[in-house]
C-alpha cells in the first residue's frame, strides 16, 4: 500500500513569493493533517481535514496561509506571501479518523531567503 | 504549559544495549492516547507504538515497548537490543479527546538517539 505522498520535497524561494505544497493521503484515510516542524522542534498542527471539511484550523495563520482539500482526497497548502520565519519542514499526515494513528509523508523542506 | 515533555535532548547507547527515552505528559482528560514516532535524517515520521489511556497492559511492538505509568503521567519508550539504524530523533505525542472540544494532537520536542557500534 502506498504511503502519504508529498511534493515537492524541497523548495527554496525568496521572501514575499508564493509557494504551494501538495499532499496525497493514504487511500481510504478520511482525516488529513498539515503540520509545520521548525528546526529542533516537534511538529505543530496547522490544520486538520475531515473529508472536505477543515476543522481544527486555529493554529493556521490565516492572513498568509490557506489550504484546501478538494473531493476529500488530495490537499494543497499555500503560503502567500512567504516570510523568512516560514522556513520549516511542512509535514502532511493522514489517518482513518481523528483517534487513529497518523501516518506521515516525507515532508517538504521550505527555505525562504 | 508544555503538554508533552521530553527532558533528554540527546541520548547515546551502545549497539545491542537497551535504552529508555523519557516522556511525561499533562492532561485532565480521562481518555487519551500516547504515541511514539521515529524521525530519521530523511525527515519522515515513522509510527512506532501506541498506548491508550485505558489499556491496562503496556504496549509492545517488536523491539519497542512503552512503559506506561498513568499515575505519574509518564510514557517512556524502551528500545531493546539497539541497532545502528535506530539512530534518529524520537518524538512522543499525545492525542486528547475532549468532549465537545477540538482535537489537536501535540508533540514533544524530541530526543536525539545515537547508537554507537
Major sheet characteristics of chain A: 7 strands, mixed
The outline of chain A comes out as: globular
Q: Are there runs of chain B of 5+ residues with pLDDT below 50, and where?
A: none
User: What's the shape of chain B?
Assistant: globular
Counted beta strands of chain A: 11
Query: What is the element string of chain B, with H for helices and E for strands?
Result: EEEEEEEEEEEE
Strand content of chain B: over 45%
Class by SSE composition of chain A: mainly beta
Average pLDDT of chain B? 92
How many β-strand stretches of chain B? 12
Largest interface: A-B, 25 and 24 residues
Give the termini separation of chain A. Answer: 37 Å
Task: Output the radius of gyration of chain A.
Answer: 13 Å
Content of β-strand of chain A? over 45%
What's the helix and strand layout?
The complex is a heterodimer of chains A (113) and B (117).
Chain A: E1 5-7, E2 10-13, E3 19-24, E4 31-37, E5 44-50, E6 53-55, E7 65-68, E8 75-79, E9 88-95, E10 103-104, E11 108-112
Chain B: E1 4-5, E2 10-14, E3 19-21, E4 24-25, E5 32-39, E6 46-52, E7 60-61, E8 64-69, E9 74-79, E10 88-96, E11 106-107, E12 111-116
Parallel strand pairs in B: 2-12
Antiparallel strand pairs in B: 1-4, 3-9, 5-6, 5-10, 7-8, 8-9, 10-11, 10-12
What does this entry show, briefly?
The complex is a heterodimer of chains A (113) and B (117). Chain A is mainly β.
How is this structure best described in words?
The complex is a heterodimer of chains A (113) and B (117). Chain A has 113 residues and is an all-beta fold. Helices cover 0% and strands 48% of the residues of chain A. Chain A contains no helices and 11 strands. Chain A has strands at 5-7, 10-13, 19-24, 31-37, 44-50, 53-55, 65-68, 75-79, 88-95, 103-104, 108-112. In chain A, strands 2, 4, 5, 6, 9, 10 and 11 form a 7-stranded mixed beta sheet that branches. A 4-stranded antiparallel beta sheet of chain A has the order 1-3-8-7, with no helix packed on it. The mean pLDDT of chain A is 92. Chain B is mainly beta and 117 residues long. Chain B has strands at 4-5, 10-14, 19-21, 24-25, 32-39, 46-52, 60-61, 64-69, 74-79, 88-96, 106-107, 111-116. In chain B, strands 2, 5, 6, 10, 11 and 12 form a 6-stranded mixed beta sheet that branches. Chain B is globular. The mean pLDDT of chain B is 92. The A-B interface holds A 33, 40-45, 48, 55-56, 58-59, 89, 91, 93, 98-99, 101-107, 109 and B 4, 33, 35, 37, 42-47, 50, 91, 93, 95, 97, 102-110.
Amino acid at each position: 500500500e502506498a504511503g502519504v505522498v508529498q511534493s515537492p520535497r524541497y523548495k527554496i524561494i525568496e521572501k514575499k513569493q508564493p509557494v504551494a505544497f501538495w499532499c496525497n493521503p493514504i487511500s481510504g484515510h478520511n482525516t488529513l493533517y498539515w503540520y509545520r516542524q521548525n528546526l529542533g522542534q516537534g511538529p505543530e498542527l496547522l490544520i486538520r481535514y475531515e473529508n472536505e471539511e477543515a476543522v481544527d484550523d486555529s493554529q493556521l495563520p490565516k492572513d498568509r496561509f490557506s489550504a484546501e482539500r478538494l473531493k476529500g482526497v488530495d490537499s494543497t497548502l499555500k503560503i502567500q506571501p512567504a516570510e523568512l520565519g516560514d522556513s520549516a519542514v511542512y509535514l502532511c499526515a493522514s489517518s482513518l479518523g481523528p483517534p487513529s494513528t497518523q501516518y506521515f509523508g516525507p515532508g517538504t523542506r521550505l527555505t525562504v531567503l | 504549559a508544555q503538554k508533552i515533555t521530553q527532558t533528554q535532548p540527546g541520548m547515546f547507547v551502545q549497539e545491542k544495549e537497551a535504552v529508555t527515552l523519557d516522556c511525561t505528559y499533562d492532561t485532565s482528560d480521562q481518555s487519551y492516547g500516547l504515541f511514539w514516532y521515529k524521525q530519521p535524517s530523511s525527515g519522515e515520521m515513522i509510527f512506532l507504538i501506541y498506548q491508550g489511556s485505558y489499556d491496562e497492559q503496556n504496549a509492545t511492538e517488536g523491539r519497542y515497548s512503552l512503559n506506561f505509568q498513568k499515575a505519574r503521567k509518564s510514557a517512556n519508550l524502551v528500545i531493546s537490543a539497539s541497532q545502528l539504524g535506530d539512530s534518529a530523533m524520537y518524538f512522543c505525542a499525545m492525542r486528547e479527546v475532549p468532549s465537545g472540544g477540538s482535537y489537536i494532537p501535540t508533540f514533544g520536542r524530541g530526543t536525539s538517539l545515537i547508537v554507537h557500534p
